[in-house]
UniProtKB/TrEMBL annotation:
GO terms, molecular function: carbohydrate binding
Residues in the signal sequence: 1-25
Domain Periplasmic binding protein residue range list: 33-291
Record-stated family: Belongs to the bacterial solute-binding protein 2 family.
Zinc keyword on record: no
Sorted UniProt keywords: Signal, Sugar transport, Transport
Protein name: ABC-type sugar transport system substrate-binding protein
Domain of life: Bacteria
InterPro entries: Peripla_BP_I, SBP_2_dom
CDD domains found in the cross-reference section: PBP1_ABC_sugar_binding-like
Gene3D superfamilies registered for this protein in UniProt: 3.40.50.2300
Major site of localization recorded for this protein: other
Gene Ontology cellular component terms for the protein in this record: cell envelope
Length: 336
Protein backbone atom coordinates (compact mmCIF):
# COMPACT_ATOMS: atom_id res chain seq x y z
CA UNK A 1 0.00 0.00 0.00
CA UNK A 2 2.80 2.41 0.91
CA UNK A 3 4.47 1.77 -2.45
CA UNK A 4 1.18 2.38 -4.30
CA UNK A 5 0.65 5.68 -2.46
CA UNK A 6 4.16 6.83 -3.33
CA UNK A 7 3.64 5.88 -6.97
CA UNK A 8 0.36 7.77 -7.11
CA UNK A 9 1.91 10.84 -5.53
CA UNK A 10 4.83 10.69 -7.92
CA UNK A 11 2.41 10.50 -10.86
CA UNK A 12 0.52 13.49 -9.51
CA UNK A 13 3.79 15.35 -9.10
CA UNK A 14 4.72 14.80 -12.72
CA UNK A 15 1.22 15.73 -13.89
CA UNK A 16 1.31 18.92 -11.86
CA UNK A 17 4.46 20.19 -13.60
CA UNK A 18 3.96 18.75 -17.06
CA UNK A 19 3.09 22.13 -18.50
CA UNK A 20 6.10 23.89 -17.03
CA UNK A 21 8.80 25.16 -19.37
CA UNK A 22 11.99 23.08 -19.17
CA UNK A 23 14.18 26.15 -19.72
CA UNK A 24 17.20 26.66 -17.49
CA UNK A 25 16.40 28.78 -14.45
CA UNK A 26 18.76 31.77 -14.19
CA UNK A 27 16.81 33.43 -11.39
CA UNK A 28 13.74 32.75 -9.34
CA UNK A 29 12.46 31.65 -5.99
CA UNK A 30 13.94 28.78 -3.99
CA UNK A 31 11.96 26.21 -2.01
CA UNK A 32 13.33 24.73 1.21
CA UNK A 33 12.36 21.28 2.47
CA UNK A 34 12.83 20.72 6.21
CA UNK A 35 13.15 17.16 7.43
CA UNK A 36 11.64 17.91 10.83
CA UNK A 37 11.21 20.78 13.26
CA UNK A 38 11.32 18.55 16.34
CA UNK A 39 15.14 18.31 16.23
CA UNK A 40 17.27 21.23 17.45
CA UNK A 41 19.67 20.49 14.60
CA UNK A 42 17.02 21.08 11.96
CA UNK A 43 15.55 24.15 13.64
CA UNK A 44 19.05 25.65 13.73
CA UNK A 45 19.64 24.71 10.10
CA UNK A 46 16.32 26.39 9.16
CA UNK A 47 17.42 29.60 10.84
CA UNK A 48 20.82 29.54 9.14
CA UNK A 49 19.28 28.94 5.68
CA UNK A 50 16.96 31.92 5.98
CA UNK A 51 19.83 34.13 7.18
CA UNK A 52 22.06 32.97 4.32
CA UNK A 53 19.33 33.53 1.75
CA UNK A 54 19.13 37.18 2.83
CA UNK A 55 22.92 37.56 2.75
CA UNK A 56 23.21 36.02 -0.71
CA UNK A 57 20.15 37.74 -2.17
CA UNK A 58 18.09 34.58 -2.74
CA UNK A 59 14.30 34.84 -2.61
CA UNK A 60 12.78 31.99 -0.60
CA UNK A 61 9.33 30.48 -0.68
CA UNK A 62 7.80 29.52 2.66
CA UNK A 63 9.69 26.37 3.81
CA UNK A 64 7.75 23.13 4.11
CA UNK A 65 8.26 20.45 6.77
CA UNK A 66 8.26 16.84 5.57
CA UNK A 67 8.30 15.32 9.07
CA UNK A 68 10.22 12.23 7.87
CA UNK A 69 7.33 11.45 5.50
CA UNK A 70 8.13 10.82 1.83
CA UNK A 71 4.54 11.51 0.77
CA UNK A 72 4.65 14.93 2.47
CA UNK A 73 8.00 15.62 0.84
CA UNK A 74 6.62 14.87 -2.63
CA UNK A 75 3.55 17.01 -1.97
CA UNK A 76 5.73 19.86 -0.69
CA UNK A 77 7.87 19.79 -3.82
CA UNK A 78 4.78 19.62 -6.02
CA UNK A 79 3.37 22.72 -4.32
CA UNK A 80 6.70 24.55 -4.59
CA UNK A 81 6.97 23.84 -8.32
CA UNK A 82 3.38 24.97 -8.81
CA UNK A 83 4.35 28.26 -7.10
CA UNK A 84 7.18 28.69 -9.60
CA UNK A 85 10.19 27.49 -7.63
CA UNK A 86 13.30 27.42 -9.80
CA UNK A 87 15.53 25.98 -7.12
CA UNK A 88 14.91 23.39 -4.41
CA UNK A 89 17.01 22.58 -1.37
CA UNK A 90 15.91 19.31 0.18
CA UNK A 91 17.06 16.46 2.38
CA UNK A 92 15.99 13.09 0.94
CA UNK A 93 15.73 11.10 4.15
CA UNK A 94 14.48 8.13 2.10
CA UNK A 95 17.36 8.12 -0.37
CA UNK A 96 15.92 5.69 -2.93
CA UNK A 97 12.61 7.58 -3.22
CA UNK A 98 14.35 10.88 -3.96
CA UNK A 99 14.46 10.10 -7.68
CA UNK A 100 10.80 11.07 -8.10
CA UNK A 101 11.48 14.52 -6.67
CA UNK A 102 14.62 15.03 -8.74
CA UNK A 103 13.09 13.99 -12.05
CA UNK A 104 9.98 16.10 -11.50
CA UNK A 105 12.08 19.14 -10.65
CA UNK A 106 14.19 18.63 -13.77
CA UNK A 107 11.07 18.37 -15.89
CA UNK A 108 9.86 21.68 -14.44
CA UNK A 109 13.16 23.40 -15.21
CA UNK A 110 14.15 23.64 -11.54
CA UNK A 111 17.53 22.74 -10.08
CA UNK A 112 17.96 20.70 -6.89
CA UNK A 113 20.65 20.77 -4.22
CA UNK A 114 20.48 17.99 -1.63
CA UNK A 115 21.66 18.82 1.89
CA UNK A 116 22.76 16.39 4.62
CA UNK A 117 21.43 13.30 2.83
CA UNK A 118 22.47 12.10 -0.62
CA UNK A 119 19.96 10.62 -3.08
CA UNK A 120 20.77 7.19 -4.48
CA UNK A 121 20.88 8.69 -7.98
CA UNK A 122 20.46 11.97 -9.89
CA UNK A 123 19.68 14.33 -11.41
CA UNK A 124 20.94 16.61 -8.65
CA UNK A 125 23.16 19.66 -9.05
CA UNK A 126 25.26 18.73 -6.01
CA UNK A 127 24.98 17.27 -2.52
CA UNK A 128 26.17 19.28 0.49
CA UNK A 129 27.07 16.78 3.15
CA UNK A 130 29.77 15.46 5.46
CA UNK A 131 31.31 11.99 5.34
CA UNK A 132 28.82 9.99 7.43
CA UNK A 133 30.94 6.84 7.41
CA UNK A 134 33.60 8.93 9.16
CA UNK A 135 30.98 9.88 11.79
CA UNK A 136 30.68 6.23 12.77
CA UNK A 137 34.43 5.73 12.68
CA UNK A 138 35.09 8.73 14.94
CA UNK A 139 32.56 7.45 17.46
CA UNK A 140 34.07 3.96 17.26
CA UNK A 141 37.62 5.12 17.92
CA UNK A 142 36.58 7.35 20.82
CA UNK A 143 34.70 4.47 22.46
CA UNK A 144 37.47 2.00 21.65
CA UNK A 145 40.02 4.24 23.35
CA UNK A 146 37.89 4.61 26.50
CA UNK A 147 36.34 1.16 26.90
CA UNK A 148 38.58 -1.88 27.29
CA UNK A 149 35.96 -4.58 26.78
CA UNK A 150 32.29 -5.42 27.08
CA UNK A 151 29.02 -4.66 25.27
CA UNK A 152 28.50 -1.42 23.31
CA UNK A 153 25.41 -0.39 21.38
CA UNK A 154 24.67 1.89 18.49
CA UNK A 155 21.23 3.49 18.40
CA UNK A 156 20.69 3.59 14.67
CA UNK A 157 19.04 6.06 12.35
CA UNK A 158 16.52 4.94 9.76
CA UNK A 159 18.14 2.46 7.36
CA UNK A 160 16.09 3.84 4.46
CA UNK A 161 18.39 6.86 4.73
CA UNK A 162 21.94 6.67 3.46
CA UNK A 163 22.96 8.63 6.57
CA UNK A 164 21.65 5.89 8.84
CA UNK A 165 23.33 3.24 6.72
CA UNK A 166 26.67 5.05 6.49
CA UNK A 167 26.92 5.81 10.19
CA UNK A 168 26.02 2.22 11.02
CA UNK A 169 28.54 0.74 8.60
CA UNK A 170 31.30 3.09 9.72
CA UNK A 171 30.81 2.20 13.39
CA UNK A 172 30.22 -1.52 12.84
CA UNK A 173 33.19 -2.11 10.55
CA UNK A 174 35.52 -0.09 12.77
CA UNK A 175 34.52 -1.97 15.94
CA UNK A 176 34.87 -5.34 14.21
CA UNK A 177 38.27 -4.51 12.73
CA UNK A 178 39.91 -2.66 15.60
CA UNK A 179 38.28 -3.62 18.91
CA UNK A 180 37.58 -7.37 19.11
CA UNK A 181 37.00 -7.23 22.89
CA UNK A 182 33.95 -5.00 22.39
CA UNK A 183 30.64 -6.78 21.83
CA UNK A 184 28.56 -4.83 19.34
CA UNK A 185 24.79 -4.54 19.84
CA UNK A 186 22.32 -2.48 17.80
CA UNK A 187 19.00 -0.73 18.39
CA UNK A 188 17.14 -0.01 15.11
CA UNK A 189 14.68 2.85 14.68
CA UNK A 190 12.21 3.85 11.98
CA UNK A 191 12.09 7.46 10.78
CA UNK A 192 14.72 8.36 13.39
CA UNK A 193 12.13 7.84 16.12
CA UNK A 194 13.07 8.86 19.65
CA UNK A 195 10.35 6.56 20.95
CA UNK A 196 11.92 3.61 19.12
CA UNK A 197 15.30 4.56 20.57
CA UNK A 198 13.98 4.71 24.15
CA UNK A 199 12.03 1.46 23.87
CA UNK A 200 14.93 -0.39 22.26
CA UNK A 201 17.45 0.87 24.79
CA UNK A 202 15.12 0.01 27.68
CA UNK A 203 14.77 -3.57 26.46
CA UNK A 204 18.49 -3.91 25.85
CA UNK A 205 19.38 -2.68 29.33
CA UNK A 206 17.08 -5.31 30.84
CA UNK A 207 19.17 -8.03 29.21
CA UNK A 208 22.51 -6.20 29.24
CA UNK A 209 22.85 -4.29 32.52
CA UNK A 210 26.65 -4.12 32.11
CA UNK A 211 26.47 -1.93 28.97
CA UNK A 212 29.70 0.03 28.57
CA UNK A 213 29.04 2.50 25.76
CA UNK A 214 26.37 4.01 23.50
CA UNK A 215 26.74 5.56 20.05
CA UNK A 216 23.70 7.64 19.01
CA UNK A 217 23.35 8.30 15.29
CA UNK A 218 21.55 11.61 15.92
CA UNK A 219 21.55 13.57 19.14
CA UNK A 220 18.82 15.89 17.93
CA UNK A 221 16.25 13.10 18.20
CA UNK A 222 17.97 10.50 20.42
CA UNK A 223 19.72 12.53 23.14
CA UNK A 224 16.75 13.29 25.40
CA UNK A 225 15.11 9.84 25.28
CA UNK A 226 18.46 8.11 25.81
CA UNK A 227 19.37 10.18 28.86
CA UNK A 228 15.84 9.88 30.25
CA UNK A 229 15.96 6.09 29.90
CA UNK A 230 19.33 5.86 31.64
CA UNK A 231 18.18 8.19 34.42
CA UNK A 232 14.98 6.21 35.00
CA UNK A 233 17.02 3.03 35.38
CA UNK A 234 19.57 4.66 37.69
CA UNK A 235 22.32 4.31 35.09
CA UNK A 236 23.01 7.94 34.22
CA UNK A 237 26.43 8.40 35.81
CA UNK A 238 28.66 11.35 34.94
CA UNK A 239 32.20 11.01 33.61
CA UNK A 240 34.53 9.87 36.36
CA UNK A 241 31.75 8.20 38.35
CA UNK A 242 31.83 4.44 38.78
CA UNK A 243 29.46 2.85 36.27
CA UNK A 244 29.59 5.73 33.79
CA UNK A 245 28.44 4.63 30.33
CA UNK A 246 30.54 6.26 27.61
CA UNK A 247 28.22 8.06 25.18
CA UNK A 248 29.10 9.51 21.78
CA UNK A 249 26.57 11.27 19.60
CA UNK A 250 26.13 13.02 16.25
CA UNK A 251 24.78 16.49 15.41
CA UNK A 252 26.66 19.05 17.51
CA UNK A 253 23.58 20.80 18.92
CA UNK A 254 23.77 23.05 22.00
CA UNK A 255 21.99 20.42 24.11
CA UNK A 256 24.77 17.92 23.37
CA UNK A 257 27.40 20.51 24.26
CA UNK A 258 25.65 21.14 27.59
CA UNK A 259 25.52 17.38 28.22
CA UNK A 260 29.26 17.15 27.55
CA UNK A 261 29.93 19.98 30.00
CA UNK A 262 27.82 18.21 32.63
CA UNK A 263 29.62 14.92 31.99
CA UNK A 264 26.41 13.15 30.93
CA UNK A 265 27.83 12.32 27.50
CA UNK A 266 31.44 12.24 26.37
CA UNK A 267 31.56 13.45 22.77
CA UNK A 268 29.63 14.35 19.66
CA UNK A 269 30.40 14.87 15.99
CA UNK A 270 29.50 18.42 14.99
CA UNK A 271 27.48 18.36 11.77
CA UNK A 272 28.04 21.79 10.23
CA UNK A 273 24.48 23.14 10.19
CA UNK A 274 25.78 26.62 9.41
CA UNK A 275 27.91 25.43 6.48
CA UNK A 276 25.12 23.20 5.18
CA UNK A 277 23.01 26.35 4.96
CA UNK A 278 25.72 28.60 3.52
CA UNK A 279 26.80 26.28 0.74
CA UNK A 280 23.31 24.90 0.11
CA UNK A 281 22.20 28.45 -0.73
CA UNK A 282 25.39 29.22 -2.67
CA UNK A 283 25.20 26.08 -4.80
CA UNK A 284 21.49 26.45 -5.61
CA UNK A 285 22.07 30.07 -6.60
CA UNK A 286 24.98 29.11 -8.84
CA UNK A 287 23.11 26.14 -10.34
CA UNK A 288 20.11 28.36 -11.14
CA UNK A 289 22.52 30.62 -13.04
CA UNK A 290 23.67 27.64 -15.11
CA UNK A 291 26.89 26.74 -13.34
CA UNK A 292 27.90 23.09 -13.18
CA UNK A 293 30.28 21.50 -10.71
CA UNK A 294 33.18 19.05 -10.94
CA UNK A 295 35.20 16.84 -8.58
CA UNK A 296 38.16 18.42 -6.82
CA UNK A 297 39.17 20.61 -3.90
CA UNK A 298 37.04 23.62 -2.98
CA UNK A 299 37.97 27.04 -1.63
CA UNK A 300 36.47 26.19 1.78
CA UNK A 301 38.59 23.27 3.07
CA UNK A 302 36.53 20.47 1.57
CA UNK A 303 36.56 18.22 -1.48
CA UNK A 304 33.89 17.52 -4.08
CA UNK A 305 33.72 13.80 -4.87
CA UNK A 306 31.70 11.80 -7.36
CA UNK A 307 30.16 9.40 -4.85
CA UNK A 308 27.97 7.63 -7.41
CA UNK A 309 27.64 8.04 -11.18
CA UNK A 310 26.21 11.51 -11.73
CA UNK A 311 26.11 12.42 -8.03
CA UNK A 312 28.66 14.98 -6.80
CA UNK A 313 29.09 15.59 -3.09
CA UNK A 314 30.84 18.45 -1.32
CA UNK A 315 32.06 16.72 1.82
CA UNK A 316 32.33 19.38 4.50
CA UNK A 317 34.42 18.88 7.66
CA UNK A 318 32.66 17.58 10.80
CA UNK A 319 34.95 17.64 13.86
CA UNK A 320 34.69 15.57 17.04
CA UNK A 321 33.70 17.62 20.10
CA UNK A 322 34.82 16.53 23.56
CA UNK A 323 35.21 18.18 26.97
CA UNK A 324 38.59 19.48 25.82
CA UNK A 325 37.23 21.62 22.97
CA UNK A 326 33.50 21.98 23.74
CA UNK A 327 33.85 25.73 24.44
CA UNK A 328 35.55 26.48 21.12
CA UNK A 329 33.73 29.51 19.70
CA UNK A 330 34.17 28.28 16.12
CA UNK A 331 31.50 25.60 16.60
CA UNK A 332 28.09 26.77 15.38
CA UNK A 333 26.42 25.53 18.57
CA UNK A 334 28.45 28.08 20.54
CA UNK A 335 27.38 30.92 18.25
CA UNK A 336 23.60 30.71 18.59
Amino acid sequence: MKTMIKAALAAALFAGVAGALPARAEEGKVALDLTTLTSPFWTSYHRYVMEEAKKQGVEMLEPFNSEFDTAKQITGVQNALALGAKGIIFSPFESAAAGNVLKAAEKAGAVVVAVDVAPDNGPVAIVVRANNIAYGEKACHYIGEHVAEGPVVQIMGDQASINGRDRGVGFRDCITKNYPKLKLLEVPTKAWSGEDAAAGLDALLNSTPDLKAIYMHAGGVFLAPTLQTLKRKGLLKTTGEEGHIVIVSNDGIPQEFDAIRKGEIDATVSQPADLYAKYGIQYVKEAMAGKTFAPGPTDHDSTILEVRPGVLEDQLPAPLVTKENVDDKSFWANQL
